[in-house]
Amino acid sequence: MNLRQIQYVCAVVEQGFNVTAAAEALFTSQPGVSKQIRLLEDELGGQIFERNGKQITRLTEFGCGLLPVLERCRAETENIRRVATDLASPEKGDLSIATAHNQARYALPPVIAAFRRRHPTVRLHLHQGEPEQIAHLAIEGKVDFAIATEGLDHFSDLVLMPCYRWGRAVVVPPGHPLANTGRLTLASLARYPLVSYSFGFGDKSGTYAAFARRNLEPDLVLTAPDTEVIKTYVREGLGVGLIAKMAYEAERDSDLICLDARHLFSLETTSIGLRRGLVLRGFMYDFIRLFAPHLDRIGVDAFVMERDIGKQRRLFKAHLSYLRVR
Predict the structure, then answer these.
(1) Angle at CA 160, nearest 5°, toward 157 and 166?
(2) Is the pLDDT of residue 174 over 80?
(3) Would you say residue 203 has pLDDT above 60?
(4) Cα distance between residue 172 and residue 241, in whole Å
(5) Which of 31, 37, 72, 267 is deepest in the core (most CB within 10 A)?
(6) Which distant-in-sequence residues (6+ apart) come within 8 Å of 229 by Cβ?
(7) How would you classify residue 141: left for phi > 0, otherwise alpha for psi between -120 and 50, otherwise beta?
C-alpha cells in the first residue's frame, strides 16, 4: 500500500466514479489509476469499487467502510507536508479561501491588503460560491478556509469560529415614502415590495421570523445573493432593498438613501470554518487574527483542539460577546 493509491481511490470518489476525470485531476493516466486501485484491492483482500465491465459504478460495502480511513490518511499526509513546509519555509506557500459575495466585496479587502503587507510571498486564492459550495470545498481540502454567514453550521466536519456580527439596512431611492418616516418599523417596511438576499428569507430565517412575530407578511418580489444586484433593482424601482448595513457605501451609493434597520432584525454572525484535523501554518493563524481580532493563536487552538462538537458550539456562543458589529 502507498499514499498514491490512497489518493487515487479518494479522487475517483470525488470525481463521481469517473476514472478519467480523476486521472486528469491528478495529472496522471487513466490506466495507471485503474492499475494502482486494482493492486490496492488485491493487497487489502476486497473490492473497493463495484464495476460494470471496466467502468467503476460505486463503492462496495467494503469500500464504504474503508473510505473514511483512507480520507483521514490522505488528510494527515497533507498535514505532514504543511508542517514540514512551515518549518523549512515559514513565509512561503498558498492560502485558499472560499467565501460569499458580501465577504469578498465588503469585509475581506482590507484584511487581504494587510495580510499581503505582512506576508508578501504567500499566494492567495479566493473562491466565491453559495454557503453549501463553500463548506464542501473546505471539507474536501480544496480550500483552507470557508467564510460565510449562513449554512456552515450544518456541516459537522467543519470547525467554526465566529468572526464578527452584522446588522441590516434598508436602501431606497430619494423621494421614497420610507425616506421621510423617521425611525423605521416592520409595519412600514411590510407595506412595500422587498428585494433581499436569497439566503436570508427562508421560512425559518430570523428575517422572516421578525415579520411573523408581528403577524406581518413581507412582500418579497426578488432575491439575489449579490448586494450590488439588489441595489441595481432598487434603482430600477422594483422594490425596497434589505441588505447588510456594511454593504452600503456612501460615495458609491450616493443615489440611494440608507435607513438603519439593525433594531428590527437579529444580528447575523459571520464565521470562518476549517476542516477538522487541518494543521494550520503560521500565516494562517495571522490571517484569522486579522479577520477576527479576538481570535489569537491560543483562541484558535482552543477551537481546533476541542474534539467534542457540543463543547465547540458552547465555545462559539461564548465568543459572541467579543465580536465587532458592522
Answers:
(1) 140
(2) yes
(3) no
(4) 7
(5) 37
(6) none
(7) left
Secondary element (H or E) of residue 247: none
Domains located in the chain, CATH noted: 3-87 (1.10.10.10), 90-164+270-325 (3.40.190.10), 168-260 (3.40.190.10)
Residues 244-283: tens digit of each pLDDT: 999 999 999 999 999 999 999 999 999 999 998 888 999 9
Angle between helical axes of 3-14 and 30-44 (0-180°, round to 10): 110
CA-based angle 141:75:316, to the nearest 5?
Answer: 65
3-state DSSP assignment of residue 294 = coil
The three cell numbers of residue 303 are 477551537
| Contact by Cβ (8 Å): 58, 49 | yes
Phi, psi of 243 (to 5 degrees): -135, 175
Q: Is 285 helix (H, G, I), strand (E, B) or coil?
A: helix
Total residues belonging to the chain: 326
Q: Which SS3 state, helix, strand or coil, does residue 50 take?
A: strand
Task: For residue 104, give the DSSP letter.
Answer: I
Gap between the Cα atoms of 245 and 164, Å rounded: 13
Radius of gyration of the chain from its Cα atoms, rounded to whole angstroms: 24
| The pLDDT value given to residue 180 | 86
Answer yes or no: are the C-beta atoms of 272 and 76 closer than 8 Å.
no
What tens digit of pLDDT does each residue of 81-139 get? 777 777 777 778 899 999 998 899 999 999 999 999 999 999 999 999 988 899 999 99
- Which of the 8 DSSP states describes residue 36? H
Which band of pLDDT confidence, cut at 50, 70 and 90, is reported for residue 183?
confident
